[in-house]
Design brief:
This protein is of the alpha/beta class and 326 residues long. The radius of gyration is 19 Å and the shape is globular. The two termini are 22 Å apart.
């Protein structure tokens, strides 16, 4: 599988990445064997970039990912995790996590983008994963914490990068406007952009993608299926878009895009995975994958070529923005 370098760093990631949120029991239980099979299948298919976070299953994702990778050659893969949410004892547990993960809530998340919080978070992640280092660290969802994330967390990460402890640093979130600020105003090398440069939403062309080009920085694209609406060959009513039921007009638009894809010999999900690479700053698409079967499907979709004529017709029909690069 092709590798691409995070600009101005020595870190290289495969074009397809393994997102470990779902093996932290996102929305429903993922059996331990399914999680192991997913990581093993990803490895066997050449995937060498794995992304996790303390937030995912209150540490479960990190523990499972670390256990599956621990005996593999460390120089052959890249792991990213995130800071901003410390896991601390929960004084009032109710039995199950309240933020979408089916795990016990003996721990709770505590927002902390301070220098001390960053260092404590990284140490805890290394302990949970059993790994000797993290290759990439993102500040995670700092929407309401810009000042502390920009003035404390990023400088702390930059110091660690300067010491060679971390290979690359950045930010990850669902909005693009603040990510553009991180690229323009901080030492970030890379941002993880969720759902804002897809077949249905190209708003990142207004801010984060021009910032990445201007400052010579990189973008990892996640959420490319927009919560599911782009994940099937033929979208249907009732599917999700950005975590909610998709409105009828978006379902109709997704179906129209699917029909163009069919005329060009591809499918909607394959095109959704290929689309972010239309922009030269995008170096990777990372997908949440729950078991080996999902991994195999996504690897196959990634291998398909999307013809340039597909993008031309989508532009001509007004189904994607006219300023989407070739």
């Amino acid at each position: 599988m092709r590798h691409r370098k995070i600009t101005n760093t020595a870190v290289e990631v495969t074009e397809l990445g393994f997102g470990a949120s779902v093996i932290g029991n996102l929305y429903r239980v993922t059996p331990a064997q399914d999680a192991t099979d997913a990581i093993d299948t990803a490895w066997d298919n050449g995937v060498r970039y794995f992304d996790t976070a303390p937030h995912y299953g209150l540490g479960l994702s990190e523990r499972r990912l670390g256990a599956a990778l621990r005996d593999r050659p460390r120089e052959q893969y890249v792991v990213s995790s995130k800071v901003g949410r410390l896991l601390v004892p929960n004084e009032q547990p109710r039995g199950v996590d309240s933020e979408g993960f089916v795990v016990r809530d003996d721990l709770r998340r505590q927002w902390d983008f301070s220098r001390d919080g960053v260092l404590r978070s990284i140490d805890a992640t290394l302990e949970r994963t059993g790994l000797d280092r993290l290759d990439v660290v993102y500040v995670h969802d700092p929407d309401d914490h810009w000042r502390q994330a920009a003035e404390e967390a990023l400088p702390a990460l930059a110091d660690l990068r300067g010491q060679g402890v971390i290979g690359a640093i950045g930010a990850g979130m669902n909005q693009s406007a603040m990510l553009a600020r991180f690229l323009r105003e901080t030492a970030a090398d890379v941002v993880m952009l969720a759902g804002r440069y897809t077949l249905l939403d190209q708003s990142a062309l207004d801010d984060v993608l021009p910032a990445a080009r201007e400052h010579g920085k990189s973008v990892v694209a996640v959420g490319v299926f927009n919560s599911g609406l782009l994940s099937r060959d033929r979208p249907t009513p009732g599917m999700k878009y950005d975590y909610a039921d998709a409105p009828p007009d978006l379902v109709a638009r997704a179906l129209a895009i699917a029909e163009v894809c069919e005329r060009h010999g591809t499918t909607l999900p394959a095109a959704a995975m290929a689309f972010p690479f239309s922009h030269p700053s995008v170096i990777n698409v990372t997908l949440g994958m729950r078991n080996g079967e999902q991994v195999g499907r996504n690897v196959e979709l990634h291998r398909r070529q999307a013809p340039e004529d597909l993008w031309k017709e989508l532009r001509a029909q007004g189904l994607i923005r006219p300023d989407v690069p070739s």
